[in-house]
Amino acid sequence: MFGSRAKTTLPTAAEALPGRATRPFTVPTTHEVLGTPLEGPWPDGTEVLHVAMGCFWGAERIFWQLPGVVTTAAGYTGGFTPNPTYEETCTGRTGHAEAVLVAYDPTRTSPELLLKAFWENHDPTQGNRQGNDVGTAYRSAIYWTTPEQEAAARATRDAFQGELTRVGAGEITTQLASAEEAGPFWYAEDYHQQYLHKNPNGYCNHGPNGLTCPVGVANLPAQTDVLPPA
């Protein structure tokens, strides 16, 4: 499992890097933009969704701007290595995807609205890559924690596939799974958290892909003023 093949082929649990029992770096306690706890505790009723859509820098910024979001964090999930580092994840030998934790208030937003932003701001047809970023760490994925999120993931995927088919684009390769199946969400290093707030001119390959994800109006809360990504 070395070289380019390691980056584009998911390892088995036996092949994955061993990792470690404790986190080898510090993580901020507070979200740099929202001023909320990065790792909780959050207000009662807060729900959590994990999404992966390529490099987590731009992906995280999309979600911290959305109404109803309590906090966001960059991290690693969907793999085998406990307490991975960024360098380890980039080799493809941990099995993890670069991902974003989205904690939100379900009375102010919905899984459908969050996933609308997910589908509309990356290319979910590229498999183990996103633009110039190649490897399993950059795969597209949704990992849910509630039945409502699962239903929204499946419904919005089907709706967005219809839009892709309409314009002659490819098939969605996004992985859909429960967060329990994906495994723990491991927080990324300090410098990755809210990276594009700290580095406004930093690398970002996310933004509108030109398509709209149709979502059922009946499933949306009253507040639908979703802000576009900066």
TrEMBL record:
Biological process, per Gene Ontology: cellular response to oxidative stress
Record protein name field: Peptide methionine sulfoxide reductase MsrA
Location of the Peptide methionine sulphoxide reductase MsrA domain: 50-205
Keywords noted in UniProt: Oxidoreductase
Enzyme Commission number, as recorded: 1.8.4.11
Claim: Oxidoreductase is one of the keywords in the record: yes
One Pfam short name: PMSR
Keyword Oxidoreductase: yes
Gene Ontology MF: a single term: L-methionine:thioredoxin-disulfide S-oxidoreductase activity
Catalytic residues (UniProt): C55
Naturally occurring in which organism (per UniProt): Knoellia aerolata DSM 18566
Cellular compartments per GO CC: cytoplasm
Protein family membership: Belongs to the MsrA Met sulfoxide reductase family.
Top-level taxonomy: Bacteria, Bacillati, Actinomycetota, Actinomycetes, Micrococcales
Function description: Has an important function as a repair enzyme for proteins that have been inactivated by oxidation. Catalyzes the reversible oxidation-reduction of methionine sulfoxide in proteins to methionine.
Reaction catalysed by this enzyme: L-methionyl-[protein] + [thioredoxin]-disulfide + H2O = L-methionyl-(S)-S-oxide-[protein] + [thioredoxin]-dithiol; [thioredoxin]-disulfide + L-methionine + H2O = L-methionine (S)-S-oxide + [thioredoxin]-dithiol
